[in-house]
Write a structure and sequence with these properties.
Blueprint (H helix, E strand, L loop, with lengths): L11 H14 L5 H22 L8 H24 L3 H15 L8 H15 L7 H11 L6 H15 L1
């Protein structure tokens, strides 16, 4: 199965729709098809809300990404509750759904990739003091929307700024 196509030309909604279409056409049933249907339903619901607010094209990728992140958080909570109640099969299903949903989210920046992005922002902004942390973090989040885990990025930014001073 692996990751879904993450080409820039395709929106998240298009990637989800394509995955659902190919899964349906293949005649498969099970957790993957059910999860894809749940994702599409949640995204369609968000689109309806966006159109109600006057956004004609529906919700943007950032909103779809938030929907997927919310779905993951809900399933993580459910999986823990199922495990606590001794419902191991249900917990496994929840974790399977999490794996399927995560296929549509971009990989977060970690390690060298994060350090490179941080160094680039620090040098582009000419930041050299710890008081530049907020400005640097804002720029980092703007350049890499949805790809930054704030805690890890903050540590990397502090480290880079302490080297720059």
């Amino acid at each position: 199965m692996g990751r879904e196509d993450t080409s820039d030309a395709m929106t998240l909604k298009a990637r989800i729709a394509n995955a659902l279409k190919s899964e349906t056409e293949s005649g498969q049933t099970g957790v993957r098809l059910a999860t894809l249907r749940l994702i599409e339903c949640a995204v369609r619901d968000r689109d309806v809300c966006a159109r109600g607010r006057g956004v004609g094209e529906g919700c943007p990728d950032a909103d779809v990404r938030r929907v997927l992140e919310t779905m993951i958080a809900q399933r993580e909570l459910s999986a823990r509750e199922h495990e606590d109640a001794g419902l191991i099969e249900d917990a496994i299903r929840e974790r399977d759904e999490i794996d399927i949903i995560q296929q549509f989210l971009p990989e977060l920046l970690h390690g060298e990739a994060l350090e490179t992005a941080v160094e680039e922002v620090v040098s582009d902004l000419g930041a050299s003091k710890l008081k530049d942390l907020g400005r640097c973090m804002s720029t980092l989040k703007e350049r890499y929307p949805g790809l930054i885990e704030t805690g890890e990025a903050g540590k990397a930014m502090r480290k880079a700024l302490s080297r720059a001073s």
